[in-house]
Structures are given as C-alpha cells and as structure tokens.
Amino acid sequence: MAALALAMMLPSAMAYVYFVALASTESGKANPALLTAYPASKAIQLCLPVGFLLAFGATKTRPPAGQVGGIRLGMIFGFVIAIAIFVLWWMLRDSVLIDVPNRVAVKVEEFGTATPALYLALAAFLSVVHSLFEESYWRWFVHARLRQWLAFAPAATLSSLAFASHHLFVLDFYLPGRFWSAAVPFTLGIAIGGAFWAWLFERSGSLVGPWISHMIVDAAILAVGYKMVFLP
Questions:
Q1: By CB atoms within 10 Å of each CB, which of 84, 100, 180, 193 scores lowest?
Q2: What is the spatial distance between Cα 164 and Cα 151, in angstroms, rounded to a whole number?
Q3: Cα-Cα-Cα-Cα dihedral of 71, 208, 218, 43, to 10°?
Q4: In this predicted model, what pLDDT tens digit does every residue of 115-142 receive, in sequence order?
Q5: What is the pLDDT of residues 75-92, one digit of tens each?
Q6: With a threshold of 0.85, does the pTM exceed it?
C-alpha cells in the first residue's frame, strides 16, 4: 500500500519540479535542466509498474473482460471533450486564457520544439505514446490496485484525483493568478475525465477504449497549443 501511495504522489512531485522549480526565466532557448529532468522523471515513474509486474506478474483486474463498447464509448467521450475544449478556448481566449499563448510559447521553447515540425513530433508522441503510458499507469496500475481493497467509487475517486493533481501545477503555470477561478476547476474537470476512463476500463476490461479517448483529448489540447504558438 505504501508503494501505491508513492505511485499516486510521485507524478505531482515531478510536475512541480519541471513546471515550477526548473522553469526558465529566459525565453527563446531550450532549458537543459528541463530536458534532463522530464525524461528522467518519466523513467522513474515507469519503474513502479514495471517493478510491480516483475514482482507479482500481470494480475487480472476484478471486473470481467470481454464486454463490448469500450472503443465506441471512448471515442464518443473523447470527441465530446475535444469539442468542449475548442469551444472553451474560443469563449475564454480574450479573458481567462488571454495570457496562455505567451506561456505556451515559452514552454515550447524550453522543450526545444519551437518549430512546427518539432512541435508536431512532440504532439504525436504525447498524444499517442504518452497517453497510453498514462492510461497504463493510472487505470491498470493505480486504479486496479486500489480496487483490490476498495469498491469502485472510492477507488475511482482516489485514482482520478491523484491523476488530476499533477495537472494542477501545469494549469497554475499557464494560468497565473487564477488558481481558484480556473486552475482548480479545470483540474477537477480532468479528475472527472479520469473517473470516466476508470469506469470505461472496468466496463470493457481493456485499456484500448480509455487510451483512444485520452488520445483524442490530448490531440485537441495540443492542437489548441499549436494554434496559440504558430497561428496567432
């Protein structure tokens, strides 16, 4: 249980490091500390589920596998949230989100992806590979392990709040001065999405539906980022 608690807190601590502690004050250049810390933190995070697999094997989750609908429901949810993201950006771009494009541009420069081609390469990686990693980590590893001790509702609540919590540092960086009015509500929205993906994972007995759904949502967010930076 202590290892699971560590797994739930680690991503937030890492997000604090590379979005707050190592944030650069200079624009226009890559941030070597960030470029080292980010992959290193992901490697450390990967060690937890891999270590679990090596120690205990791939134990089955409690719900039975084989029910249909995971992919279809995942796609529907993903596209609904993607449309909501585009609408929200359009509605709030001149008020709540007015400072976001400059901060996105700074972060893109820090990651060394300040050209359209490099940004799109990073976006493809984050949307496809990283979303699968997050679903494996949060739904298969964290949520399913919690289900060994808890009913669905408390397990989904804990895993989804932990999943959303590291996004709070990210949102606070992009929305300075709007912690309670924007960063916290958006983080709670992410937690709701995480709870849906946990439910879909249990319903379908597969990560494919949640992964596709997560991929669509991440692609929408990164598309808005591309518009902010390269198509002002």
A1: 180
A2: 20
A3: 180
A4: 999 999 999 999 999 999 999 999 999 9
A5: 999 999 999 999 999 999
A6: yes
**Burial zone of 128 (CB within 10 Å; 0-12 exposed, 13-18 middle, 19+ buried):** middle
Is residue 139 within 8 A of residue 197, CB to CB? The reply is yes
Please count the other Cβ atoms lying within 10 Å of the Cβ belonging to residue 85: 16
Residue ranges of alpha helices (H) inside the chain are: 2-16, 32-56, 70-92, 100-110, 116-124, 131-135, 144-146, 152-174, 184-204, 208-230
Terminal Cα distance for the chain, rounded: 48
> Which residue is associated with the tokens 């084989």?
66
Cβ(56)–Cβ(190) below 8 Å: no
> What is the rounded CA–CA span in Å between residue 173 and residue 165?
13
